[in-house]
Amino acid sequence: MADEEQFDGLDELPSSPSPDTIKVGSTTMSLPTKLKGKKIKKKGHRRENNITGEVTFKKSSSEAIAGALQLGIAHSVGKLSERPDRDVLMQDFEVVELIDFPTKGTTLTPPHEFGEFTFQSYAPLAMRYFRDIFDISVEGYIHSIIHEPLTAIGNPGASGSLFWITHDDEFIIKTVDNKEAEFLMNLLPGYFMNVQQNPRTLLPKFYGLYCVKKERKHIRVVVMNNLLPRDVEMHYKFDLKGSRYKRKANSKEQQKKSPTWKDLDFERIFDSKRISLVKESYNAMIETIKRDCLVLNSFSIMDYSFLIGVHKCSVGEIASMESMSLSASNSRGNSVFKRSALYSSPMEQVFTGSQVNLQLSQHKVDQNWGGIPALLPDGTQVLIYCGIIDILQCYKLLKRTEHFFKSLYTNGEEISVVRPGFYAERFQDFLKNKVFIPQSKSSLPNPSQILEQGLEEELEDKLSKEAAKSNVDHNKNGTYF
Which region ranges are annotated with the description Disordered (predicted)? Predict the structure, then answer.
């Protein structure tokens, strides 16, 4: 009976609150054990706080990584410039130089607020040679990277990489994983040979490969050419591979202010019609793509993309192009029209131009960063900016396995991951027959004439300045004419 009495009235006791609530008197309150939405957005090693907006990568803030990169690159490139020039040797592609950056500084490094780190520079001498080929001086390279804070680009891509852009729009800095960095190191000798033989290419141009080591975490980055200048509005952006399987921008991407569309979107937006190029532009573009794909196939590279930015021309831009005038002297005072690297604009990448000495000038000045004139299917006159991206993917075991399993439930020829040779053929065929079309008779200006006239004007401007300087020197010496 005692036991029965002990349990009498249990039904009258208040029910136990759930683990995430607490009862105070007659009030039940929720404990803050769960957030209404995800606080941290994760993608790869990238973490973004949805409340504060802070972005971290391998537990280091984006700002701290950018600051460390600026310090490390300035030191590495600056010290390298003190060494005498010599030919690149095979062992130079395997060199890794490193230096410690304690927060208090040393006799070689300044004090800083980015946390203690070790900076590694991969194949620094070979990379200097690449920069020399594209006429990038030590001063220009360092100025672009450290003169102002690097600007983070919000789109992390599928891999969760971090992207930064320099203040002058010259360079993109992107984080890469260990396999991509290792693959690039192995690729460098062949890349060296290709760039030496053909500096006019739509392939990415690698200007530096570095690593910031913080708290046992390796953050590897590559410095590349920037394809889409921020000063030119891109009304469309496309990432094209020539495949159809799931090649459509998702709903989240479509809601962005400036979405990046894919293959199926291209067909839908332009109603399966193509972008018109004058015949010379078309032939030069397709020939360059063919040559670049041959190089990529030789290294068993696949799953790369063709990035296109489309800028709709204003009335003033159309009039300027029709008059074939680049107004080089007027734009010289405006830094947004300067490209310090040779072969960095689309027009220079695919056209040989005239025999006017390209390397005489300090800056390449092209209207709107050298976009290639084109026509959309509805007749709208545009400038296109393009290049091949994401080439650090090799067709090895992981990619072969991915191809096998995807082929089980869809057409193996329509997926992105296929044999490099087939990928290159499909890629070229798509761009040649589905994206671009030649137009023999067009109101569009001839790009090679634009490039030639711009270079001639630039050369004339330089010679006139030298003559003026010579007259001043004569006057200083007391010689009058």
Answer: 1-28
